[in-house]
Amino acid sequence: MSTLVARLKLSSFNWLAFCMFILTVAGLGVSGYLMWGYTVPGATLSCGASSGCETVKNSAYANLAGIPLPVWGLVSYAVLLVLLVSQGQPIVSDRGWVPYVALSIFGVSLAGVIYSAYLTYIELFVIFAICRWCVASAIIMVAIFILSIINLRNNQSYYTAR
Question: Which of 27, 65, 69, 132 is deepest in the core (most CB within 10 A)?
Answer without folding.
Answer: 27
